Amino acid sequence: MPRALSKNQYAYDEIKRRILVDELAAGSVVSQEGIAAELGVSTTPVREALKRLAAEGLVLLETHRDARVTPLTAEEARSLDEVRRTVDPLAAGLAAQRRTPADVAAVESALAALEPLTTGGGAAAALAALATHRAFHRAVYRASHNAPLVEVLEGLWDKTDRYRQIGLRARADDPADLDRVREEHRALAAAVVAGDAAAAERVMRAHVAGSLGRRAVAVLEGADSGP
Known about the structure:
It is built from ten helices and three strands. With 227 residues, it is mostly helical. It folds into two domains: 63 residues, Winged helix-like DNA-binding domain superfamily/Winged helix DNA-binding domain (Arc Repressor Mutant, subunit A); 152 residues, Up-down Bundle (Four Helix Bundle (Hemerythrin (Met), subunit A)), CATH 1.20.120. Strands 1-3-2 form a three-stranded antiparallel beta sheet. A hairpin with a 4-residue loop joins β2 and β3. The radius of gyration is 18 Å and the shape is globular. The mean pLDDT is 89.
């Protein structure tokens, strides 16, 4: 366990990481005793971590001893996509109107640190790249200076990351698609920095429409319909 982390935070971070990289698969049972033994901590920090993850919608608390990783469904993927198509453009537009010099610096720094989301490098590399995308989008939506909106988007992000990974695994890397995403990020940052709310909303709307989360909807709907 990293010394800088409390046991509670360490348990939370590690269980969450395992869920996001699919080491703890959707629908699988998480035993408090089992995971505590693996992490070298007592069941108390594990229990607290599972409560936090349940509040974020990543696990379901079924008994006082165990939890279950929340299943991935086409219905939830669709619902998340519907919400993002509204709140992400709203946040981008507000960010363009309200950004401060500190916000501009944060957006530009996060843009420079972005890593492409590709199928190469395995789950750990994908998770690291997803973290850079979250940092960029967080820099944008925090510039909205709308606390309830930021809270909503923070809550959506982890749930959506699980579906992004489905979308990522569903199709081989496409250089043209990677270029499109890279250009959308650049255009979004430019619109926010320039204070162009209409452009920021327009770019974000297109970005969500072509997102990995949106691709996951099609994948899961196809799985539900069968051959």
